[in-house]
Every structure is written in C-alpha cells, then in structure tokens.
Amino acid sequence: MLAGAFRRIGCPELADEIMTTMRAASYTVRETDPFVQKRTFGFLHATTAPIFGRLQAMWKTMREAVVRMFPKAPGLPKNTDGYLRSVDEIYQKDAYHSLSIEGYRVTSELIGRVHSGSWNPDHHDGDRQSRDALAVRLHSSVS
C-alpha cells in the first residue's frame, strides 16, 4: 500500500524503490492504491513552504471573482505619438528620482542626452566628467 500511495501523490521513483527493496529482501509484494476515492495530489517538495499549496488552492477558488473586479483593458492608445512622449517623460522623471534617491547627482538634461543617445564625452565637458566619475566608480567596485 505504501508504494501505491507514493505513486498516487506523484513520487513514482520512491514507489519503485520500495517495491525493488522489498523484492530484494525476498518478500512477495503487490502494489495497491490505498486511497478509496481516486484523487490526484500535487506533490510539494520538502523545501516548499506549506503556505504555497494553500495559496494555490485559494487562487483557484478566487481567481474568477478577482478577474471580474478588474476593469476592462484600455486597448492601444489612439494617439501613439502622444503616448510615447508621455512614456519618455515618465522614464526621465523615474530615472531622475531613482538616481537621486541612490545619491547620484544627475540632471534632467544629462538623463535626456543619455536616453536619446546624444551623450558624448568627446564633445561635452559635463559628459566627460560623468564618464570619468563612472570609471572611478566602476574601478572602486571591482577592486
């Protein structure tokens, strides 16, 4: 019965090992499934937290209700150019704030040049200084 139980929960290797070991010990064995009702179980590894299975079960029962609560997808924007401009503005603001929070001294102008591909340390003093600072920073993090 034990081998049948392990096979049922998705551990055929363990079931085979039990059967092989019992036969090697000269026992006559017959594998049977001890579960009365035929149910399938997802096997969780020993390293998987028990809450994982609980959350999966909850999601299966609640998914449809959650999906119904979400608004309809807005679809593609009608004004593509305007939408892309707003994405660029959001990118630049996000980059400025994120880098400032991390302690970097950047300007919107520098972010715009880097984003547009016009950052050029060979022709712009500020870009040359930021390149030099970046080289020092990279060198100190590697050393």
In short:
The chain is mainly α. It is built from 6 helices and no strands.
Instruction: Quote the distance from N terminus to C terminus.
Output: 61 Å
CA-based shape: elongated
Fraction of helical residues: 55-70%
Alpha plus pi helix count = 6
Unreliable segments (pLDDT under 50, ≥5 consecutive)?
none
Order of helices and strands: HHHHHH
**β-sheet strand percentage:** under 5%
Helix/strand-derived class?
A: mainly alpha
Tell me, rounded to a whole number, the average pLDDT: 82
How many strand segments?
0
Radius of gyration: 31 Å
> What about the largest sheet?
none
Describe the structure.
The protein is mainly alpha-helical and 143 residues long. 62% of the residues lie in helices and 0% in strands. The protein has six helices and no strands. α1 packs antiparallel against α2 (12-24) and α4 (80-101) crosses α5 (108-116). The chain is elongated, with a radius of gyration of 31 Å. It starts with a helix and ends with a helix. The mean pLDDT is 82.
